[in-house]
Amino acid sequence: MKTWLSFWYGIFKNNPIFRLVLGLCPTLAVTTSLENALGMGLAATFVLVCSNGLVSALRRVIPPAVHIPCYIVIIATFVTAIDLLMQAYLPDLSASLGIFIPLIVVNCIILGRAEAFASKNGIVDSLADGLGSGVGFTLSLALIAAVREIVGAGTLTVWGDIAVKGINPGPVTLAILPAGGFITLGLLLALINRIGEWNARRHGAPAPLPVNLDCRHCTMCGRGKDGGAGGEAKGGRS
């Protein structure tokens, strides 16, 4: 049951973009097309699953004093592997995503799941958590990219094999510009929050509060010790 919840929470309750609001740099940069969004999401999912599994397997071996550097080395290893694989088998996609594949190393979603979950749980649960977070990240990227591409270009293309043109007869170029990324993300966040409030009221429950996983509850710096990380460890969510 815990394994299933770990997977389910990563997609919905603790969705990296729409609930935790993490990883916004690649989110805004690569969602100009659905193809780029899916490529980035799948690459991040691979790194999430592999790094979570290895961090969990080594959690009793890695000294606490150097756990963050060790996590970064583990993540960088898998990022290098997926980067080389994409360059070999998907060169066009690799060129399109550019620097954002190597930058997965410092993606706060991946390092955060390693520190907050994989370092404290078993391998199976950690794999489920990584897969759920990766799927949630990919679906969120795909949703944002689909909206931006349809509104901004009037097309929807996936790796050149599936192309639908003329969806929007009057494309708005702003949607695929940087400002359009902020606007689209803000509108989708507002819509999802509104749906959450409506669903809570329909079941007679109070409106959902923001997820308790912000900087104040981070376990990666000293600030978390005075009520941040301590509160997370005792009663917070991971």
Low-confidence stretches: 223-238
The count of helical stretches stands at 9
Q: Please give the number of β-strands.
A: 2
**From the helix content, strand content and strand pairing, which structural class follows?**
mainly alpha
- Main pleated sheet: 2 strands, antiparallel
Order of helices and strands: HHHHHHHEEHH
What would the average pLDDT be, to the nearest integer? 84
Polypeptide structure, described:
- This protein is mostly helical.
- It folds into two domains: 2-207, no CATH class; 211-238, no CATH class.
- Helix content is 60%, strand content 3%.
- The protein has nine helices and two strands, in the order αααααααββαα.
- The chain has helices at 2-11, 24-30, 34-57, 67-89, 91-97, 108-116, 123-153, 178-202, 229-235, and strands spanning 155-158, 162-165.
- A two-stranded antiparallel sheet has the order 1-2.
- It is globular and about 60 Å long.
- The two termini are 16 Å apart.
What's the helix and strand layout?
Layout: H1 2-11, H2 24-30, H3 34-57, H4 67-89, H5 91-97, H6 108-116, H7 123-153, E1 155-158, E2 162-165, H8 178-202, H9 229-235
Antiparallel strand pairs: 1-2
Task: Explain briefly what this protein structure is.
60% of the residues lie in helices and 3% in strands. It contains 9 helices and 2 strands, in the order αααααααββαα.
List the main descriptive attributes of the protein structure presented here:
disordered C terminus; 238 residues; 9 helices; globular; single chain; two-stranded antiparallel ribbon; mainly alpha; 2 strands
